[in-house]
Design the sequence.
């Protein structure tokens, strides 16, 4: 009996979908291309089903190729396949992480992935502050959601940046102001990661005055010999966002690679033409190899036992912990334990009791939440009491009543000025 694979795609004639079908059939798989918008979910009373035009869908593996415009519905379908124990190449959570550029940037930056300076804007009057924070104009204005270069603009002055932000906000978008990397204007590097390994990479170049280098916008592509640091960042980014298959876009800055974006449904046409690599074949081969193992939501799993879960403690906030051994912290047993230490962008799982804490460490505990809090509180009580007893300091925006309301947020030698124009 052959492996049955479902490709979730609204475009069966698209290059990427056709290539995936060809490679799956070549490896002996039975392939169904299913339009996610024609799938429905039935749950309750022990029933867990995904229906296609009223018929139950029973497959061994699912490959989501979900377009931006149907993200919410497509993710709901992928999540239901996961709940049914079906292997899904790219988790529902991973797709959501990658589609929200702000969320993705927060995750990546927190895990020491270099990204361009980025400011989140909710009001056009905040654009000037954001521009100052990312290094001035020109700067990039983009919506937090979008794909294939949509909703991304280069603004050469503050007025243009404000107008672009206003237009995006009027359409209901959330807006990011991002640092412009001049030395990488009109080009980037696309890395295809499959199963935590780089299978192909290419450099993309924009044509004419266009600064976006996307292949679908007419950019040219060429093979690119990927440096080790680029490969390491690309693989780590895909892993952090929860993606088995990812197109990772990197900028070549004067200070090394900067991660621009991660795509959960990368196009295959440009990279296969540029490199000659059978990327679709790598994807299907990986699915065949790993389809027997479905992903687990660890947070949800750990919380299934009543009253149990995880807590974290950042050592830098409690200096008294620096230099202490884990064995000296608290009693470790079935009711409470140190599950891991986050250190230098990595995790030390089930650490030895003799491990000495450093200032930048984060301690991750697991156990009965009430017991954990009771055991941890005495360790940090001194620091808590010192903070409570210390005289309160005024917030920067409270220091001077005649200061411009947004001036506290901008560290600049230039005097704050009001907008000389409005839309």
Sequence:
């Amino acid at each position: 009996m052959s492996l049955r694979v479902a490709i979730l795609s609204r475009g069966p004639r698209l290059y990427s979908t056709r290539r995936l079908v060809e490679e799956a059939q070549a490896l002996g798989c039975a392939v169904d291309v299913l339009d996610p918008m024609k799938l429905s979910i039935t749950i309750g009373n022990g029933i867990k089903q995904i229906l296609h035009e009223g018929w139950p869908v029973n497959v061994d593996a699912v490959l989501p190729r979900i377009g931006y415009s149907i993200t919410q519905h497509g993710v709901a379908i992928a999540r239901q396949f996961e709940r049914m124990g079906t292997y899904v190449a790219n988790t529902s959570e991973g797709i959501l992480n990658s589609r929200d550029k702000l969320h993705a940037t927060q995750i990546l930056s927190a895990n020491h992935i270099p990204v361009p300076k980025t400011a989140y804007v909710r009001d056009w009057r905040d654009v000037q502050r954001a521009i100052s924070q990312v290094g001035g104009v020109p700067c990039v204005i983009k919506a937090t959601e979008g794909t294939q270069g949509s909703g991304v603009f280069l603004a050469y002055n503050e007025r243009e940046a404000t107008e672009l932000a206003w237009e995006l906000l009027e359409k209901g978008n959330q807006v990011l102001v991002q640092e412009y990397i001049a030395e990488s204007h009109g080009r980037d590097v696309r890395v295809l990661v499959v199963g935590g390994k780089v299978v192909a990479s290419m450099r993309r170049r924009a044509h004419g005055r266009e600064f976006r280098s996307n292949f679908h916008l007419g950019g040219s592509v060429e093979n690119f010999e990927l440096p080790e640091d680029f490969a390491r960042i690309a693989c780590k980014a895909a892993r952090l966002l929860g993606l088995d298959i990812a197109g990772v876009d990197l900028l070549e800055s004067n200070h090394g690679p900067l991660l621009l974006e991660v795509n959960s449904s990368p196009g295959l046409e440009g990279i296969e033409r540029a490199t000659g690599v059978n990327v679709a074949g790598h994807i299907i081969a990986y699915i065949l190899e790993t389809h027997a193992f479905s992903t687990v939501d660890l947070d949800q799993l750990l919380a299934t036992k009543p009253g149990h879960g995880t807590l974290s403690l950042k050592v830098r906030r409690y200096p008294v912990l620096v230099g202490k051994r884990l064995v000296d912290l608290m009693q470790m047993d079935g009711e409470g334990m140190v599950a891991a230490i986050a250190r230098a962008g990595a995790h030390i799982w089930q650490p030895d009791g003799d491990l000495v804490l450093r200032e930048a460490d984060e301690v991750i505990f697991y156990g009965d939440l009430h017991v954990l809090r009771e055991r941890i509180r005495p360790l940090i009580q001194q620091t808590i009491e010192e903070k409570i007893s210390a005289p309160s300091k005024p917030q920067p925006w409270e220091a001077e009543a005649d200061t411009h309301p947004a001036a506290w947020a901008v560290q600049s030698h230039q005097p704050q000025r009001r907008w000389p124009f409005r839309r």
About this structure: Confidence is low (pLDDT under 50) at residues 403-423. The chain is about 30% helix and 25% strand.
